[in-house]
Amino acid sequence: MSGTKLLMTFPVTATSHTLADYRARGGYRALEKALNQMKPEEVTREVTASGVLGHGGAAFPVGRKWAVVKLNDGQPHYLCCNADEGEPGTFKDRWILEHDPHLLLESMLIASYALGVRHSFVYIRGEFDLPYRRLAGAVEEAYEAGYFGERILGTDFACDVVVYRGAGSYVCGEASGLITSIEGKKGYPRNRPPRLTVHGLYQRPTVVNNVETLANVAGIIARGADAYKKVGTPKSPGTQLVSISGHINRPGVYEVEYGYPLAKFLYEDCGGILGARALKALIPGGISTKVLTGAEAESLIYDHASFAKAGSSLGSGGMIVIAEGTCMVRLLQVMLRFYHHESCGQCTPCRDGMGWLHRIIDRIVAGEGVPEDIERMQAISRANDGTTICGMGDAAGYATVAILEKFRDEFDYWIAHKRSRCDGRLEVPGHA
Amino acid sequence: MLELFIDGKPVRAEKNETVLQAAVANGISIPYFCWHPRLSVPGNCRICLVEVEDEKGGNWTDIACNMPVAEGMRVLTDSDAVRAHRKAMLQLILLNHPVDCGICDKAGECALQDYHYEYSGLRSVSRDAKVRATKFHPLSERIVLDNERCILCSRCVRFTHEISKSHALGIQERGDHSLVRAVEDGRFDADPYSDNVIDLCPVGALLSRSFLYKARVWYLQATPSVCPGCERGCTVQIWHRKPEWHLSALDPRQNTAIARVTPLENPNVNGPWICNKGRDLARIFERPRAEQAMLTGVPTELSAATAAARRLVAAAKRPVALVSSWGSNEELAAFKAHLGGRFASFVKQDCRPAPGEPLEDDLLIRPDKNPNTAGARKLFGDAAPAFRNDTDLVLVWGEGFDFARLPRGAKTIVLDAYAHPDNARADVFLPVSIQTERQGHYTNFAGVVSAFEPCFPKRASVADAERLFVSLAAAVEALA
Q1: CA contacts within 13 A on the Cβ side of B305
Q2: At residue B307, does pLDDT exceed 50?
Q3: Contacts across the A-B interface (CB distance below 8 Å)
Q4: Cβ–Cβ gap B61/A359 under 8 Å
Q5: pLDDT at B249
Q6: Are A356 and B128 in contact (CB under 8 A)?
Q7: Class assignment of domain A242-323?
Q8: What is the C-alpha to C-alpha distance for residues A360 and A4, in angstroms, rounded to an integer?
Q9: What whole-number percentage of chain B has pLDDT above 70?
Q10: A279: which strand partners?
């Protein structure tokens, strides 16, 4: 077992997502506590004290984001829950939406109370079918039970929630792109400044948090910041839902306590690498995080600091395991096809750079690569570093450069010999 | 006001300005494609990126168009990092651009061309095929779009959303397959300001159908003028062939043709915009001209017709003049000075709105479709034209007179620039020059006076109205 559990604390059954089961698990008590015993500022203070970090990928301290929103500043505030979960390899929010939607709704109510929000939004990935139905069902149940609407739990607090389905754009998972999409515009990210907590949805102060981030709020209020901080490490309190896929024996969603040894997680909890092969590489948190070689990964502790030290990050927790024998050139081709397809086309470096990278890698795979292609790809990645409106260009560049640097020999080999140095398939022999 | 330093030079700026605005106001050159002073800041071309010297956290870079100024801020617009960045951005912008400057109407006044030569000058390092996209996409009846040349700066899109409010343009698709497209209900055709997007386009993607492949801009010169299309009196530039590039073979009429009309930026009147009617001044000025003086329809010499007119003026007892609201302030003043005492003068509305023409809107278009009604009324009052039973001579200056309204038995002197069947009904017809053949001023509805310059020489067979009035006044002086 991968450490203490905060979210995956109950057995999943056919009814575990319903309001009745959620109440039986002690649900909506944190909301009662917040509304009856705490002032909004106290809720924010508790969340700040817990040190909970954003679980969407950037690991920004939640309390610091919330503290920017000034209560009673005479304008409406908005809360958007980012359930767009589009980072390849990530499917952990889906678990919460499918199996514990009321936890999310309760947390959103608490956050709305703390932030002075009357209208909150869930921006859910359009491809999510069951999660959407479960969430929509939960919203209906919650309205019927009086958790949303006017005079919630008999207090003066009022809050509504709107579930908004996305239409399949990766960039709409970026906070400002998500907001422009909710506004009914094309999902183009916005320039900062201004920050979204100053001018966000409809130009009002807006907090955008990931599903898992928000889901932790109810627990923090119910059990207190101190109890939350006891889990995990001092700098990375709490747990992370890790969605692991790729060449691993038991893929799925696991809750991992920060500070848990990565090797133990991979080889004990997840049953080791498929076909008992060696670990060639690990993408730790969605393809936008820098790839780690097997040797780098196996000695790591699962927390933010040690991954940062290794030159990567935990990202969104979407872990992709890559076994020995996998061709990294083809892997990069798949990644760049994705980035090319998903670039919103707003700003120059990403719009033209992603297409260029994709065409170069396609040409290399077709056997028409030239040695300077690798420098060219690195230069295009550099041109995206810190120059784009949102983080997608940077992330794509970092991911590309990491693979090029760490597996340079495979690219050189393909360019020289017009074929893969590995077996050229993502399947491991003996398993296909 | 606060002070910052751009390239070491102290610059004063307002608190809510951006670094790019401060730089532009102080004549410091930072390249930009998507930014425009009258439009919102999308920050998508990324070419205006500058470096900020920060002693605490090390230097950082961001786009100047979205960077708020701060007291004591030290901005570098020409550091190594900035120069390298501009080269990289130009490589990317030109990656899928066809670089067909040789056949592009924008060549010579293209921001991409200028910046490429100024900041990069490098060949493309790409060895991959360019992305192909639509050529000659019919965006409206007036505009075609070359999607391969488009750099997706979104200026045109923002113009229709923020200035003309037609909301007619948008961007379809994503990434490097994005396409600017018009809403399919034809509202871009109906946008009376649509042609401004042609000027806004920093490259040659948006092309005017009427100017398409008509001239290289370096053969043209722009003469400042005033649009006579309505009483707004927008200042415009009339583009025509430079004298040194005059054609003697092919079609010499091109030498005196209006190639195109663009706005002349004027914060007091029209800002940087004009409406489509202003773009089509050739349709007004290049109508068939009246070039022949006539006596009751019989062609005659200009001098003979002038003498006949002088006799009519001398003989009349109760003459009435209908002065043109298309006359310049100078012409109107000459009429007032020399003939004002002789004639009972009224201001005439030369032009009325054409069927289907927009009457009035919030941006520029005004209901009175004459350029100098205000200037004329200042001299001659705003009484409606009225004839008396004993009116025995009517001098009609300009178009739009209905001969049915002529008092019975009255003689007529008509001064007009354009051919019209009614011209032959005048006892004396005198052809006069048009705006593009003379200089002068118009006073717009708000009292702002704007000047226009001659584009072409006056034709020998037509009179200059200002001089004509002096000549006619000789008859008045003879009476006195």
Answers
A1: 28
A2: yes
A3: 95
A4: no
A5: 84
A6: yes
A7: alpha beta
A8: 46
A9: 99
A10: A323
Is residue B255 scored above 60 in pLDDT?
yes
Interface of A with B in 323-342 (CB under 8 A): 340-342
Domain map (residue ranges) of chain A: 19-230, 242-323, 328-417
- Asked if the structure places residue B109 within a domain, the reply is no
State ipTM. Answer: 0.92
> Residue B52 above 80 pLDDT?
yes
Could you list the beta-strand ranges (E) of B45-129.
49-53, 60-63, 74-76
Candidates B17, B46, B90: best to mutate against A (most CBs of A within 10 A) is B46
Residues 161-200 of A with CB under 8 A from B: 169, 186, 191, 193
Is residue B101, in this structure, part of any structural domain at all?
A: no
| Residues B358 and B414 placed together within one structural domain of the fold | yes
- Mean pLDDT over B194-222 rounds to 96
Give strand pairing partners of B428: B295, B413
Question: Where is the domain boundary, B227, B258, B285?
Answer: B285
Mutate to test the interface with B, among A171, A351, A384, A390 (most CBs of B within 10 A): A351
In a domain, B110, yes or no: no
Tell me the residues of chain B between 385 and 414 that have a Cβ less than 8 Å away from chain A. Answer: none
CATH code of B81's domain: 3.10.20.740
Domain count, chain B: 3
Q: What is the mean pLDDT of residues A168-196?
A: 95
Fold of A328-417: de novo design (two linked rop proteins) (1.20.1440)
Any B CB within 8 A of A389 CB: yes
Nearest to A167, CA basis, from A189, A149, A184, A144: A184
Q: What is the pLDDT of residue B14?
A: 95
Residue B257 structural domain:
127-285
B123 and A CB contact within 8 Å: no
Residues B228 and B298 in one domain: no
Instruction: Read off the CATH number of the domain in which B276 is found.
Output: 3.30.70.20
Answer yes or no: is pLDDT of B308 > 80. Answer: yes
User: Considering only CB atoms, which chain B residues are within 8 Å of A344?
Assistant: 174-175
Which residues in chain A are contacts of B89 at CB distance < 8 A?
348-349, 383, 387
The string of pLDDT tens digits covering residues B361-371 is: 999 999 999 99
C-alpha to C-alpha distance for B159 and B173, rounded to whole angstroms: 20
Percent with pLDDT over 90 in chain A:
94
Instruction: For residue B405, tell me if it sits in a domain.
Output: yes
C-alpha–C-alpha distance, residues B33 and B204, integer Å: 13
Tell me if A191 and B126 make a contact (CB, 8 A cut-off).
no
Q: Which one of B42, B88, B170 has the shortest CB-CB distance to A383?
A: B88
Query: Do B315 and B254 belong to one domain?
Result: no
CATH topology assigned to domain A19-230: Rossmann fold (3.40.50)
If asked whether residues B410 and B470 sit together in one domain, one would say yes
Q: How confident is the model at residue A423 (pLDDT cuts 50, 70, 90)?
A: low
**How does DSSP assign B395-432, residue by residue?**
EEESS---GGGSPTT-EEEEEESB--GGGGGSSEEEEB
